[in-house]
Amino acid sequence: MSKAIKVENLSKAYQLGDFGTGTISRDLERFWARMRGKEDPFLKIGEINDRTTKGESDVVWSLNDINFEVEQGDAVGIIGRNGAGKSTLLKVLSRVTSPTTGSVKLRGRIASLLEVGTGFHPELSGRENIYLNGAILGMRKAEIKRKFDEIVSFSGVERYIDTPVKRYSSGMYVRLAFAVAAHLESEILIVDEVLAVGDAEFQKKCLGKMGQVSRNEGRTVLFVSHNMAAVKTLCTRGIVLANGQLIYENKQLEAVSFYQTNNNTRSTFEHHDDLSSAPGNENIRVLKFIIQPLTGESISMSTGVCFEMVFFNQKAGINLDATFELRNSDEIPVFHNGVLISTNNNSKTGFYTIKCTIPPNLLNAGNYSFKLIFGENQRYLLFGADDFIGFEVENESKGSNSSLAPGVIHPNLDFTVSYQS
Amino acid sequence: MSDLHPEKWDIEINAKSSLLDLKFKDIWHYRDLLVLLVRRDFISFYKQTILGPVWFFVQPVITILFYTLIFGNLAGIPVDGLPKPLFYLAGTIIWNYFADCLNKTSTVFKDNAGILGKVYFPRLIMPLSIVLSNLIRFAVQFLLFIILYIIFVLKGEHIVPNAAALLLPLLIVMIASLGLGLGMIISAVTTKYRDIAFVVAFGVPLLMYATTVIYPLSVAQTKYPKYSWLIKFNPITAVIETFRYGLLGKGSFSWELLTYSIISTILILLVGIVIFNKVEKTFVDTV
User: What is the pLDDT of residue A265?
Assistant: First the structure.
């Protein structure tokens, strides 16, 4: 198989802050340096792009020396946290902006779907917008004409096709826009998170269409998403970006699990300093959260999980409750269970400890995270924290099959088998 | 192996490319988009209006009405003995075409940041579509000019067109190129520094007075012989004067002035395209 995309030493620098009166002198300085054939003085410092820490220079490398190749027909998922450089990479690949250094080589036509409905004009009808949007995405008029009926029936907005799109519901708008893009005839398709739109039925349709594009039609797809379930089902390979650097590249399942383990490693939390700096607010301070296996050294599917939380309560004389929501790595809630700590308006100021166990043979292998909600009278929020702490359940091989079973839970079920001739 | 079969790639994205690589092949491939954008501008202009395309006429009619009243009658600026409405309309439609092209092109990156930041197509398509959309407006207004022309001829006015009228296509291309070129130069600067946008906002209406829209060049030359070179220096003057001379038979026409205007138009357009080409690659990051 031949290569469809080859990315070599790709870097992209952005300037932080505002462009104001201060920047013109620097622009002149840069211009003067370039005129003399020297290196741009403001791009020398190769700082890692970490948005959480304050850097030394105000130039930031959104992409830093990225190298990879994509085979024709591969569906590659690009994953990473917010600000890892995913969208910048797609922007460079789709020629919206150009790289600071390095090069990208592409074979075949490239179409990018960084946003659906780009260039839709609200005053024009659905029909006119199909033509306009198709042309913006690089289709010839004859090509759109040929596919027109297919596009309309995929979108499911036949009835409104001659109505201006400003009268459309947002769902219809997106359906029509995706339908146009999905019928592009390009060898390489770039998609950025557009699947986060529309209702469940339409999302499924979009995912199906994209799978069809890469598997059946042999086209190359680059797909950026935070939806790990979608990456797993759609893609064949995965690339993990962090702080503008490519840190992992492999088959999609390995890449997803690499990303998840590296993104989510805390499994115990203890706060030793004074109360006021512990996570929480004036009502609640969480001091300790420990997650461990019921038996054995590490948590796996058959060990069960025991978790313990210590917190300090400030609000005396109320009905206090605490809720634990466990989510898996696809952000699907596994359970959302609460405990009433005081029922007769008799909560006390002081330390509370909550212990709980999740029985063995319930959770499937994978990464999980806890969301905490503290409430008053089960109505008013005292303190809440998404993604407070995470842990991993290791996979256990059963029989000859060692691969991960799909499903949110993986209980031990008693099957009864009977046979009748 | 790789030496024997050098890899063939269709698209290469590099940090730098040559200034004069104008990607005409790409533009040709996207010609349908150009047509559809022009159509979009035309249709969306009069959507949800009762009078529809008639609005294309209203603006110039009202404008020349006011010019006739104020500059013609109140101020009494002579107009080479031509019917005043016809004289003003000739200048106005050409000036409008130039000003519309310039204004729209100079904000093309800002106005279309949404599309341009999400999809690739040859960026030059955008300003080209502006020039073509405005050409349609110009054509409609030119029709008005012809109607007015016939009315005045039927009324017995002595208007004699001459061979210079054959230069009309060239004049239209020149005025479009001037608007496009200047607009692209300004658009490139305004992506990063918005200051120039303010200059354009009040500068373009003022520039009209330095062009022979409401007075003929001959009057300027007799009244301000010392400063008339300033008006001549403006390349739009030659276009308007040639237009009036060719179609109305009166005006200052000289090959020297027209040649100067052609050369400066070509220069402005070239500089505009080169600057635009350089800026389009990274404007997304700074706009």
Answer: 46
Mean pLDDT of B223-252: 86
Number of domains in chain B: 1
> Do A317 and A348 reside in the same domain of the chain?
yes
- Tell me whether A109 touches chain B (CB under 8 Å): yes
Which of B17, B28, B32 to substitute to test the interface with A, most A CBs within 10 Å?
B32
A14 reaches B (C-beta below 8 A)? yes
Instruction: Please indicate if any CB of chain B lies within 8 Å of the CB of A24.
Output: yes
ipTM of this complex prediction, to 2 decimal places: 0.80
Same domain assignment for residues A208 and A250: yes
| Claim to verify: residue A61 and residue A103 sit in the same structural domain | yes
Count of CB contacts below 8 A, A vs B? 116
Nearest CB partner across the interface for B115, out of A91, A119, A123: A119
Contact at CB, B286 and A19, closer than 8 angstroms = yes
Question: CB distance A100–B15 less than 8 Å?
Answer: yes
Give the model's pLDDT for residue B3. 41
**CA pair distance A103, B251, nearest whole angstrom:** 57
Note whether B33 contacts A136, CB cutoff 8 Å.
yes
pTM: 0.72
| A106 contact residues in B (CB cutoff 8 A) | 9-13
CB contact under 8 Å between B193 and A107, yes or no, is no
pLDDT band of A170, cuts 50, 70, 90: confident
Q: Indicate whether A296 belongs to any domain.
A: yes
Enclosing H/E stretch for A286: strand A284-293
What pLDDT digit, counting tens, does each position of A91-140 carry? 888 888 888 888 888 888 887 777 776 778 888 889 999 999 888 888 88
If asked whether residues A272 and A258 sit together in one domain, one would say no
Q: Within a domain: residue A150?
A: yes
Q: B243 in a domain, yes or no?
A: yes
Cβ–Cβ under 8 Å, residues A179 and A155? yes
B3-20 residue pLDDT tens = 444 567 777 887 766 666
| Residue B2 near chain A (CB below 8 Å) | no
Residues B257 and B169 sit within 8 Å (Cβ to Cβ): no
- Quote the distance between the C-alpha of residue A43 and its chain's center: 30
Choosing from A232, A262, A292, the residue where a domain stops is: A262
Residue B60, CB-side half-sphere exposure with 13 Å CA sphere: 27
Domain that holds residue A382: 268-393
Q: Are residues A252 and A272 in the same domain?
A: no
In this structure, the number of other CB atoms found within 10 A of the CB of residue A88 comes to 24
Q: Which of A7-21, A22-36, A77-91, A272-286 has the lowest mean pLDDT?
A: A22-36
Strand order in the sheet with A333-340: A333-340, A320-328, A366-376, A380-393
B271-280 pLDDT tens trace: 998 888 888 8
Q: Look up residue B164 and give its DSSP letter.
A: G
**Residue where a domain terminates, one of A242, A262, A282:** A262
Q: What is the pLDDT of residues A269-312, one digit of tens each?
A: 777 667 777 888 888 999 888 888 888 777 888 888 999 999 99
CATH number for position A74: 3.40.50.300
Number of domains in chain A: 2
Which one of A27, A131, A136 has the shortest CB-CB distance to B119?
A136
Nearest C-alpha in B relative to A11: B15
User: Both tokens of residue A2?
Assistant: 């031949």
Is B14 a domain residue? no
Q: Which domain holds residue B87?
A: 24-286
| Among A112, A123, A137, beta carbon nearest to B44 | A123
User: Closest Cα to residue A132, out of A165, A172, A95?
Assistant: A165
Q: Is A102 found in the same domain as A63?
A: yes
Residue B34 belongs to a domain: yes
Note whether residue A416 is domain-resident: no
């308007």: which residue's tokens? B240
Q: Per the domain annotation, does A143 fall within a domain?
A: yes
Structure tokens of A220? 């190359």
